[in-house]
Amino acid sequence: MIVIVDYGMGNLKSVFNAFTLLCYSVKISDSPEEIINADRLVLPGVGAFGDCMNGLIERGISDAVRDFISKGNPFLGICVGMQLLFTRSFEFGEQHGLGYFTGDIKRFEDDGVHKVPHMGWNSLKILKETPLLNGILDGSFVYFVHSYYAPLMEYTVASCEYVNNFSAMVLRDNIAAVQFHPEKSQSNGLKILKNFAEWKC
Predict the structure, then answer these.
(1) In the chain, which end has fewer C-beta atoms inside a 10 angstrom radius, N or C?
(2) What domain range includes position 154?
(3) How far apart are CA 108 and CA 25, in angstroms?
(4) What value does the mean pLDDT of the chain take?
(5) C-alpha distances in angstroms, 11 versus 42, 79, 89, 195?
(6) Residue 188, burial from CB neighbour count under 10 angstroms (0-12, 13-18, 19+)
(7) What is the pLDDT of residue 180?
(8) Alpha-carbon dihedral of residues 172, 177, 182, 183, nearest 10 degrees?
(9) Which residues of the chain have pLDDT under 50?
């Protein structure tokens, strides 16, 4: 069973519908027990970093997410769900994340050319091979909506350029995360979700 974490934030229904379209068993839950015992866990996110982090804490499920990750089962963070995996964010002041990836989440600078938020289709630069990107060609387009970004780092497997280069996908052991929205990225996004659903990490 794929469990989508419900912490009061995020585009839960769209992610649910995408997995359902792919014919996988999926449910939305804020139950610590169901989160810990999931076969695969998805942490989506829409909104401010601090609000999302507080949602996990206030619902008493941040420890359940950590316990799930420690088991080594496949985990996927989406958009702010990816950013929460980093050390900290500077969205509305300094905010602390889950810390699985070392780095700061920062806002795109206003360069007078690019609009912020970064919203719409943009292409991926594939930096490392991974089963999660099977069927995705270098330069494939996916859908983004974000004002803050994660830096390039050793765990970056795909990058994107907007104002500067940033991490579009990161991967460490059983933890995968994407800045874009696969549930809104049509066939490319569905391929990535299917790869995750079948991922043997």
Answers:
(1) N
(2) 2-197
(3) 37
(4) 95
(5) 11, 10, 20, 20
(6) buried
(7) 98
(8) 120
(9) none
The DSSP annotation for 119-184 comes to EEEEE-EE-S--GGGTTPPTT-EEEEEESEEPPP-TTEEEEEEESEEEEEEEEETTEEEESS-GGG
Nearest-10 Cα torsion for 109, 12, 21, 3: 110
The first and second tokens of residue 119, run together, are 């919203």
In the annotation, is 181 catalytic? yes
Domain CATH code at residue 103: 3.40.50.880
What amino acid occupies position 192?
I
Catalytic residue, chosen from 34, 52, 79, 146, is: 79
- 183 as an active site residue: the answer is yes
Per annotation, catalytic residue among 52, 118, 146, 183? 183
Which one-letter amino acid corresponds to residue 142? V
Per DSSP, the three-state class of 49 is helix
* Tally of structural domains, the chain: 1
Active site annotation includes 201: no
The pair of structure tokens assigned to 114 is: 């690019």
Read off the tokens for 80.
């702010």
pLDDT at 49: 85
